[in-house]
Design a protein that fits this description.
There is one protein chain. By secondary structure, this protein is an alpha/beta fold. It folds into three domains: 157 residues, HUPs (Rossmann fold); 90 residues, no CATH class; 102 residues, no CATH class. 44% of the residues lie in helices and 10% in strands. The protein is built from 15 helices and seven strands. The strands form two sheets. Strands 3-2-1-4-5 form a five-stranded parallel beta sheet. Strands 6-7 form a two-stranded antiparallel sheet. Strand 6 and strand 7 form a beta hairpin. Helix 1 runs parallel beside helix 2, helix 6 crosses helix 9 and helix 8 crosses helix 9. The longest helix has 21 residues.
Length: 367
Amino acid sequence: MKVRHLLGISGGKDSAALAIYMKTRYPEISMEYYFCDTGKELDETYKLIDELEGFLGQKISRWMAVKDSPEDPFDHFLKLYGGYLPSNMARWCTKNLKLEPFEREVGDDLVISYVAIRGDENREGYVSTKSNIQTIFPFRKNIWSVDILSKALGNDNITNFLIVYSEIANKRVFEKAKGIILEEISRKFFFSQKVEALLNINITAFNKVVFHCLKDTSYPIAHLEDYPLLNNEEIIVKDDVIKMIKVNGVTYPEYSKEIPYKINGEIGHYSRSRSGCFFCFYQQKIEWIWLYENHRARFDEAMNYEKDGYTWNENESLADLIKPERIHQIKEDHLKKARNKLLSKKSNKLIDVLDDPEGISCVNCFI
């Protein structure tokens, strides 16, 4: 039975890097690329997608949540929700504009979905509730989703996992892992601890055992004879992502490039931290200021959505956010946080301070 391999392009650096990574490292995987277009993206997003198509040598499918509406998908659903803007409490935008178009286009096909969560991020990505869709995270040490690991490492599967591990791993590796495998998950030994401990012993052995344990399941990967990512032991972090994009000649997303601003005689830097709609409610206040000062037309468009008491930010309208004194305060706060973050990275251990050539001289200043 055919298994489709799908990779979603968000317009950000991580998904772009994952597309490059899969194309260059695993060309034997017949990957399909897609982009769920909300109609409210920055121009830089569409530019990146066009460039990626050139690099990949294939089309990136554009999937729209609404195909026969005279309006952009976001505006179409905004009307259906009576002008109620999306928020943390009601993320109808993600559901209607991203997840549902993906699942509609997939239908009942067996699909492995590739998600670009980096190895230096501590979060889980989207995992579909549909049994025909499975998620893989190539950039992490642990490429598997929680649902798969729960099945493979559950207390009721210990004996089977142990037997398979003994058949796949060499004797030295098996002896190291045996005690961990036999220990049941409990309040004293968390599921995450067990996964991490086994991965620290041997990533490839762990991946191959999990793969084998899935053979009698309905997961899409069970229909594959082999899977090249089982041997992948690379962990990709932010610096790797940036390098990967630049080395392969793809333009780094413009909105991710830090731009200097001056406040109280000091220089700070701001940029946009995420792809997606230019008015995303997850933006930090400093990102709204970045949008205001660098994409004024887009900011004005976002501000026009605020009416009938609905605002993008809780308890603060965009009109209030761009008052001169408020901009000044936001930049001050952002600069202070950046300074504190820099200083917090400095170790207070004497050996580390002495080993750092800048450790003493710059501890009280912002670089």
